[in-house]
Amino acid sequence: MTRAPLPSELALARRLDPAPAWAEGFVEEGGDDHLVLVPGAPAPGGAPGVVLRLARRPEVASELGRRMALLSALAPHLPWLSPEPLSDVVLGDDAAPAAVLQRFVSGGAHAPHEGDPAALRGVLEALAAVPTAAWESLVTGPYVSSAPWDPAGREAVLGVLPAEARRAAEAVWAGLEGIEGEATGLVHGDLAGHNMRWKVERLVGVIDWDHAAAWDPAINLSHLALWHGVDVVAPAAPDARFAARAALWVGHHALFRLRRAAEDGAVRRWERLLRKTLPRLDFAATAGAGEVLA
């Protein structure tokens, strides 16, 4: 969803960089934590070189400095572009408590349900190659979707699963317990969809590092699998154990989505949600739990 920029947003943008055609641009409202003001293109068909990121809430504004420091630290070590900061973080008003200029990363999402496993393996290798010292003090630990599978959460999921799928869920939970704390590395946090900017079949940039964490790096592959399809897991993984952990995280994501939907009670068509999540759950039980618990 997009809209025209507000006068206060234009004032912040011009304060940081008066050159771009901010008033001719638009505000992208799709993010939970931020708005993004994209200026008008400098020439017909051209792409802007900068965007303005605006925090939606004070608690997000307080994190903006750390997130920008992380992007600055990662940029020299990545083989593709990232939205590194091009200004200091500045304070705004109640509607936009803080803002920062960032590099515009062009490109678009890869077509879903397909992709070259070798190219995706290269993404994993690039993340693994970033020196730990560049990110360890600037990332968080496991984020919200790592909420422990307490009895209430499990019961919420089991209550909406068909009887024949409950055994798979139990196997995935057992497998996740079996790999807990097994590996720690740089996890992007949402390595899929429009956060990965492709031109044809070449990855040119990765954006939205807001949930970067020190966690199991196999989560990176699980996120890739949610977009490109679970068939990429085995050929993209560096080894069989990594692939098994990634498969279990695919199952975790499916179960967590069901848990959130069950607790919110906001799903109108459970059949549609189950059609999407049950195959992932079966895959996780077979390729993940079957390997870890063997």
Report on the structure:
The structure is a single chain. With 294 residues, the protein is α+β, with helices and mostly antiparallel strands. It has helices at 7-16, 58-74, 117-129, 151-158, 163-179, 218-228, 233-236, 240-264, 270-292, and strands at residues 2-3, 21-28, 34-40, 50-55, 90-91, 98-103, 185-187, 196-199, 202-206, 213-215. It has 2 domains: 2-103, 2-Layer Sandwich (Phosphorylase Kinase, domain 1); 117-292, Aminoglycoside 3'-phosphotransferase, Chain: A, domain 2 (Alpha-Beta Complex), CATH 3.90.1200. It is built from 9 helices and 10 strands. Strand 5 and strand 6 (98-103) form a beta hairpin. The chain starts with a strand and ends with a helix.
